[in-house]
């Protein structure tokens, strides 16, 4: 049974809790790198210098009489036998300094309230801004759930994230909007915007899917919003800046190409399959030999090329190899920029094989497929080393999926393989966003040791 505290005790408990939170908040101002303490120190030093300068002015100038009266007044407050006169002056000086700092803090709180910011979260915002501004410049390429999970982990460490998203999806809500409005597929863009948004409310709204309503059933709010902006601006290329500002995105999200594209797969039995949504069901006993986009010479945004040029790390995946990662690499300007980049290129291998796409495809074949379509080998292949729980394995086995491991790899790629604990605890075999982000950023720090 829950214990009910008396009203007086509850009030004392709330006051004590509020006091602890305030104390923790004051201590957090001492965190290095906020760029705040230096100004408090400067304010205190200037206040002391100003006090001594004013003392010099009054003692040597026409206000000498006022200074004398002030000293006599302080002396009268405390007998010399109880407290020396210099100590009285020290106490008054410290009290004045505390009052000045308090007034400055309260002024800042009033200003923050006036512009609609919560003073209690101001410290978090300052810390995030200062910390994230020093984060690594990362370009993440892919689509689907894997990319959005990676972004949700990276955004806690850097504000210089650029997501380069495939837009060849032609199924579900994205496919219907593509067909109706002749636009690029918005689905994976929506997932990435939600992952990088600083507003939990907006992130939740973006992913909300309508389950009723003629014409909007099956669509997500984010897809409809992007479709609206695409119509208003004559394409999403002109709406990118508006989207980033409206959604308070930490970083940037760009489509790999701004033109509608169709994924075409060449199969081992000689057949061609058009459309991403048709691929899995059409494979049968065959496997994918190669994929391409139609039309072939697709444009990309200048901001995409610039982000790749400035990147300190380029990450491929995690995600579907042939339908999420490689399609983004088939845009000519994107591929050329990645090949010319000095940044390390890291391929994050999926934890499980994907039925209908990578069945029986070993890690080495993933590496070869990237080289075949991009013209550059990944510098590192990052693979999960944790064992997948037996109940999760059994569930995936029913669909024909098995773990993608580093077992049996040849000496050709072994030096480029890195193993790490990347599995997220849960009912699915997904990457842990925070663990994956930490491993990738450590790779950036240790680049000189490769």
Automatic annotation (TrEMBL):
**Segments passing through the bilayer:** 84-107
Q: Name one Pfam family in it.
A: CofD
Q: Which GO terms describe its biological process?
A: regulation of cell shape
Indicate where this protein is primarily found.
cytoplasm
Enumerate the InterPro entries for this protein.
CofD (IPR002882), CofD-like_dom_sf (IPR038136), Gluconeogen_factor (IPR010119)
Keyword annotations: Cytoplasm, Membrane, Transmembrane, Transmembrane helix
Location of the protein in the cell: Cytoplasm
Q: Does the keyword Transmembrane helix apply?
A: yes
GO CC terms for this protein?
cytoplasm
Q: Which GO terms describe its molecular function?
A: LPPG:FO 2-phospho-L-lactate transferase activity
Asked if the Swiss-Prot or TrEMBL record annotates the protein with the keyword Nucleotide-binding, the reply is: no
Entry's PANTHER family?
GLUCONEOGENESIS FACTOR-RELATED, UNCHARACTERIZED PROTEIN YVCK-RELATED
Purpose = Required for morphogenesis under gluconeogenic growth conditions.
Q: Which HAMAP family match?
A: Gluconeogen_factor (MF_00973)
What is the name attached to this protein's record?
Putative gluconeogenesis factor
State the organism of origin.
Deinococcus sonorensis KR-87
